[in-house]
Specification:
- By secondary structure, the chain is mainly beta.
- It contains one helix and eleven strands; from the N terminus they run αβββββββββββ.
- It has an eleven-stranded mixed β-barrel.
- The radius of gyration is 19 Å and the shape is globular.
């Protein structure tokens, strides 16, 4: 277990170091936000279930306006208890900002995901690989949307680790320490300068409210490369997520 923890620490250190070096040689703007989200995974049978999550993010100075709203749904097929495929759709609303200062910019995002879990007595891991097809509405000017959509693919890899605090491990009323990193890579004909899209690093705590309900809170850094290729955004955010899992299978 010690060796595995050392690998996690090295992984986090390398990512942070690479991002820091990039930030030193490029133009980087800094923002402060709040990220709120609700996640639900409901299992209807041994093979089928549903995924849903809702997000709302502020824009800057933690509580000034809004930047993003997301509604994401999916149909899940369970290979077994620890591995599953999900096929879904997300609607994203990019609130006024950038080159659309007075209007919101919609995005349609089909997505496919493979997710798997690995559990140990003193450690829980969750990983997924997600492919997204992003249709982002074109912008005419600050006040008008244009006809048509920009399109690109994006692949995301998420590595989540959870370490129990105290003797009450992964039980209602217990706390855990959480480390999480997710990297996003763009590809497609319209991607020229920003194959690397962003990295999200999170560290914080998880409180288990009930058997299948958890509250997650802590610090998030989102490091984003813009489409120009030489401009970056570093977002420091307070992240609060509520995670809710429902097993609706009939008891045998």
């Amino acid at each position: 277990m010690k060796t595995f923890k050392n690998y996690i620490c090295l992984f986090v250190f390398l990512i942070c170091s690479c991002l820091q070096l990039s930030a030193q040689t490029k133009t980087t703007t800094h923002e402060e936000q709040v990220w709120l989200a609700y996640f639900n995974q409901t299992r209807f049978s041994d093979k089928w279930g549903m995924w849903s999550d809702l997000h709302l993010r502020t824009k800057e100075d933690f509580f000034t306006n809004f930047s993003t709203g997301i509604i994401r749904l999916g149909l899940t097929y369970y290979l077994n208890t620890d591995a599953k495929f999900t096929l879904g759709y997300a609607y994203v609303n990019h609130f006024p900002g950038g080159n659309h200062k007075n209007i919101s910019r919609p995005e349609h995002r089909p997505w496919q995901q493979f997710q798997w879990h690995t559990n140990y007595p003193k450690l829980k891991l969750m990983q997924y690989i997600r492919l997204e097809e992003r249709y982002v509405r074109k912008v005419l000017n600050d006040d008008e949307l244009a006809e048509g959509y920009n399109f690109n693919f994006r692949v995301r890899y998420n590595f989540f680790s959870q370490f129990p605090i105290g003797k009450k491990r992964f039980q209602p009323g217990s706390f855990s320490f959480v480390l999480n990193d997710e990297i996003h890579i763009n590809f497609g004909e319209e991607i020229v300068y920003n194959t690397f899209d962003q990295n999200r690093f999170f560290m914080g705590f998880q409180y288990q409210l009930a058997k299948n309900t958890n509250l997650q809170f802590g610090y998030l850094n989102q490091f984003v490369q813009t489409s120009s290729g030489n401009e970056y955004r570093s977002i420091n955010a307070a992240r609060i997520f509520l995670l809710h899992n429902i097993d609706a299978r009939k008891k045998k």
